[in-house]
Amino acid sequence: MTETEANSEPVERPAGIEVIRKYLAALDDRPGVYRMLNDQGEVLYVGKARSLRKRVRNYASSTGHSRRIELVVEQTASMMFLTTETETEALLLEQNLIKQLKPRYNVLLRDDKSFPGIMLTTAHKFPQIRKHRGRRSEKGSYFGPFASPASVNRTLKQLQRVFLLRSCSDSVLDSRSRPCLLHQIQRCSAPCVGLITENAYADLVQDAERFLSGKSSRIQAELATQMKAASESLEFERAASLRDRIKALTQIQSAQNVNPRTVDAADVVAVHFEGGKSCVQVFFIRAHQNWGNHAYFPRTGSWADETEILEAFLVQFYSNKQPPRQVILSHHLASAETVGDLLSKHRGGRVKLTVPVRGEKAALVAGALRNARDALAMKLAESQTQVRLLQGLGEFLQLEAPPRRVEVYDNSHVQGAHQIGAMIVSGPEGFQKSGYRKFTIRNRTGKAGDDYAMMREVLGRRFNRLMEADPDRRGGEWPDLVLIDGGAGHVSAACEALAATGAHDIPLAGVAKGRQRNAGLEEFHLPGGRVAALRQDSPILYFVQRIRDEAHRFAIGAHRARRAKSMVASPLAEIPGVGPRRKAALMTHFGSAQAVARAGLDDLKSVNGISDALAETIYRHFQPADHG
């Protein structure tokens, strides 16, 4: 592909249409991607075209544009072009650039995380069943996606009761000498100690795969036959076990809400647009079962229509997920063939896009649209409330304008150990979790547990990074207000850190719990030693408490995760020159890290792969007193 750019800066900038018209002579009919930039070099809009010349000619016309496109054209000072071989390649490149540049007038999917699923491994003779998220690089059978981790956990729990498959890792399985608790509560057949044969276990695995593939009624019928036979043979304990397995199967099916009869595997995607905002609902249908739904609220690029929102959503949503064979849509796409080709490429097989008008598929779309409409109404109500709260907070703190991005900072540690700083972000649409940040405290100068030093370090690192990345503050990462958990001393330390980075003009306030340390008696400490308070029944105070508690929750969670990781870390990892291979050799020879620590120098030298010099290093690490 090739790229051309024109960024001339005349003394008097011509109108946007005139700027766009100047590019027509240099363009051909090849497919590609174009960027429209303002006079400050910011990307306003990214688009793709089957023919760049025809698309730009449309923009050069003075009529027939929506209000959004009129705004883009008016502000355009220059354009950039990338030509591609195919329209599908242009579509993929367009969405990559949208994700990277986040243009103001494009539709942008804000949450494109992967979804959890269920995996049956095949590398071991006794396959493991477990939750899976991410790339499907390991050999095995994959089922999903599910809408949430909770739905996967619930289904896994019931599947273990029905099919008695192990959930432990291969290493745990191979090292056990007696059944674990899961066998005692009848959720595992205990292949680890030979309580089930390999063939019998393979039958259970086959049944689980059949069930997850939608053949549940046949399995239930077979279990019912076995239960009847066991009862007639007076094997009442086995009959009761089979009865419980049938009951668990029924519970899984009843938890799937709506189970379509004619749709085997599909995603149902519906968009509702209202008041400049949109909601996209995705329902996951797998094995004739509804495996849950998820609501998305993409940034709509200022009044984009449903077709454009849906098309942009599909390309971004499936950029890191494998699409099913069928995607059922609420609206027709302008580039349905191109989008279908791209999704087929991601899948490695044909993906069919369909917009049904009758039957069960249309009912599924109607349900998804209803959910999208209800979710958007709730989101709009929450957003309006959030805007009023931010406006009230701005007035209380005497800010020039209501804050649109509030960053809240908190620290967590236990007696100076495992120090963590945390930052959360809140705005008109609630918590912006993609903006959350964790900081591992380095604390090279202050003493461990010094909250003021921790606050100076966290804010210094955060705003130094902002100054490097966006010194002109044109992006959306600069906060309009910084809140910290603490009183006058914390505010003083924070002011020092902001001043040192050149961000002394950022509004700042500390939130302390007051003299009696009770919620509702919070005091706001402001630069210069000022102290202010809100009424105990003030909704603004409740709002501040909520975002402060979210920062505290995030900081505590990060601290606990780091502490847990350190508790299981091997002391061998701290020794220079001891990598995974030598660590394994030491563990194999001595049996444990504690035994390595107690070993003598000659014993260490006898380990295969450990040189005399490294043996000296290991010995000195654990016995420093012997080598003053």
Features:
628 residues, alpha+beta, five-stranded mixed sheet, 20 helices, 20 strands, globular
Question: Secondary structure elements and their pairing?
Answer:
Layout: E1 3-6, H1 16-21, E2 32-37, E3 43-49, H2 52-60, H3 67-75, E4 78-83, H4 87-101, E5 117-121, E6 129-132, E7 140-143, H5 149-163, H6 170-175, H7 181-184, H8 198-212, H9 216-232, H10 236-254, E8 266-274, E9 277-286, E10 289-296, H11 306-317, E11 326-329, H12 336-347, E12 352-354, H13 359-396, E13 406-414, E14 417-427, E15 430-431, E16 437-440, H14 451-469, E17 481-485, H15 488-501, E18 508-512, E19 523-526, E20 530-532, H16 539-568, H17 580-590, H18 593-598, H19 601-605, H20 612-622
Parallel strand pairs: 8-11, 11-12, 13-17, 17-18
Antiparallel strand pairs: 1-4, 2-3, 2-4, 5-6, 5-7, 8-9, 9-10, 13-14, 14-15, 14-16, 18-19, 19-20
Helix content: 40-55%
The dominant shape is globular
* Unreliable residue runs: 2-13, 254-258
Number of strands: 20
Rounded average pLDDT: 83
Beta-strand share of residues: 15-25%
Number of helices: 20
The radius of gyration is 30 Å
End-to-end Cα distance, whole Å, is: 65 Å
Query: Which structural class fits the helix and strand makeup?
Result: alpha+beta
